[in-house]
Amino acid sequence: MIKVDGLTKVYRVPKKAPGVWGSIRALVRRAYDEVRAVDEVSFHISPGERVGFLGPNGAGKTTTLKMLSGLLVPTAGAADVAGHKPWARDTAFLRQVTLVMGQKMQLLWDLPPRETFELNRALFDLDRAEYRRTLDDLVALLELGPLLDRPVRNLSLGERMKCELAAALLHRPAVLFLDEPTIGLDVRMQVAVRQFIEEWNEKSGATVLLTSHYMADIAALCPRVIVIASGKLVYDGPLADLVLRHAPDRRVVVATLRPLTAEELAGAAPFTQDDGRLSALVPTAEVKAAVDRALRTFPVRDLTIEEPPLEEVIARLFAREQELEQERKRGVVVAGRAAAGGSGSGNRGSGDGSGDGSGSGNGNGERPSA
Amino acid sequence: MSALRHAVRAWPTLLRIGVAEMVAYRAEIFIWFLTATMPLIMMLVWDRVAAGGPVGRFDQPGFARYFVATLVVRQLTSSWLVWEMNEQIRSGSLSPALLKPMHPLVLPAAENIAALPFRAAMLLPLVAVIWLWRPEMRWGVAAADLPLLVVAVFLAWLLNYLTQVCFAALAFWLQQSSGLFMVWFGVWVLLSGYAFPLELMPPALLAAVRWLPFRAMLGVPVEIASGLSSGLGALAAVALQLVWCAAVGLLARAMWRAGVRRYEAYGA
């Protein structure tokens, strides 16, 4: 449904030295910096898939979505969305895709949402009966009934987002590009939007490519994730594998019936006591041994095994990518990396020490062939 | 062809939405209306001048007739596309319109036309007051010229709209093109017949100004409406309007297409 091959976008950004003199010089002769917002990104997405698109701010996610929805013309590379070249924006293509932007609204601000829906019916030339059916579906799923006739400016952010989704789906697009659809929403509304996207995907079979800063969105919706950093694709695969690869540790937490004595604690490593709780960070493969040991040696009242939060996993991945990028920029020889991959953290020596140190040992290649 | 059928089917809804928006923005419409009342001031100035005797073909009722026509034609043919489109391009809010299977310039045109009844409603009392003030002012159009007047008003609107598309499209390169439009507008005020009847210009200058697009954007319908131009002369002027619409239309299309390719969809 979506095929992307070597997609690249280079922006020319005007450069201006600070101060009055800089402004005058910029007036006379403009200098530009070239920013590679998206750098030879390639991936395929099958019909009906829900894919999360992750990356730190400025990584190129939104630029990619804009190119795939037809708003931006790429500098190089090719893309095929539902059988069309997006930036040609032909009518048949526009009828099959939609782009929802959490921070930009298409709703007519001073009119009730119903008017935007009507407008979209006319703009997409939808059959009235079919339009009515779709609208009824959307009103039921999103509980829009009471909102339809109130001016958009009087709706809350969450209510507006629900209406925005409805407006974007009236033409029943086969491909949904969702850019931060839950941004700024409270937790309850995030859950509602998330559930709606899942239901809609299952009902309509539409393909979904979604960016979000809320990892809960990604975890709930996207079995597969694509990660880009500094414009480059750095991971494409199952979310579970990403977690395993970048968070190979689990935290084993033990609540004890009584505080341990100093002597007991001395022999408890890797468990440490904090706030009357014992905990240890252990590699996934050693969890069973650690649990066995805890049950044998401590007066256990309760025991839990925690996965690190997804946010943390992603933050680690981004931090690692940034280090690699810096290494590349500094011209550090990277050739040895592959060979040194499994040998611990020795190859990270040029980092600035800001990593959390737990990434050692996962030196396997980051880029599975997609 | 199917695109045209689509536009025709959509048109009633677009107009209805346009009217709904006008009702929501009625205060703004009133302010726009006020900004276009310069002909009233010019009428009073020229009325004083003509108190001492006619200026060319214009006596006091003649000026009143000319400037009432100017006021009405201006209200029916003005557009505010350049301001809105400039802002939409700069802020990136043009994006949703670009993703609809209808050209992004069709809806603003419908909004423009939807405003006409509101503008007419504000004009009627004003024209009535002027009539009371200069009762000798009479209706200047021959019945035979009426269809031509309708065409001339429409073409003047179209040329205004297309010109604004060109200036708005400059925003794809300049980010801020409404300043340039104001420079153009300054020239337009002088050369379109907005500030004074063009025939009061020195003949040599008038010979050149007749061929420029400014007169086609206002002067042509005003001259027909106030009876200064009729028959074959009026027909020739409307033909020139048509030529300008075609030329500026082609330019607008080329600029819009090139601009959209440069669009950077800021913000979102």
Low-confidence stretches of chain B: none
The amount of helix of chain B comes to over 70%
Q: Biggest β-sheet of chain B, characterized?
A: none
* Total DSSP E strands of chain A: 13
Note the main sheet of chain A. Answer: 6 strands, mixed
Estimate the strand proportion of chain A: 25-35%
- Our measurement of the CA-to-CA distance between the termini of chain A, rounded to an integer number of angstroms, reads 15 Å
Give a short overview.
Chain A is built from 13 helices and 13 strands. By secondary structure, chain A is an alpha/beta fold.
Question: What features would you describe in this structure?
Answer:
The complex is a heterodimer of chains A (370) and B (268). Helix content of chain A is 37%, strand content 25%. By secondary structure, chain A is an alpha/beta fold. By secondary structure, chain B is mostly helical. Helix content of chain B is 75%, strand content 0%. Chain B contains 13 helices and no strands. Chain B has helices at 2-24, 26-35, 38-49, 60-77, 81-91, 95-98, 106-114, 116-133, 146-174, 178-191, 203-209, 213-225, 231-262. Chain A binds chain B through residues 11, 62, 66, 69-73, 89, 91, 94-95, 97-99, 101, 103-106, 108, 110-111, 115, 118-125, 151, 179, and chain B through 3, 6, 9-10, 13-14, 16-17, 20-21, 24-25, 92-93, 95-96, 98-102, 107, 261, 263-265, 267-268.
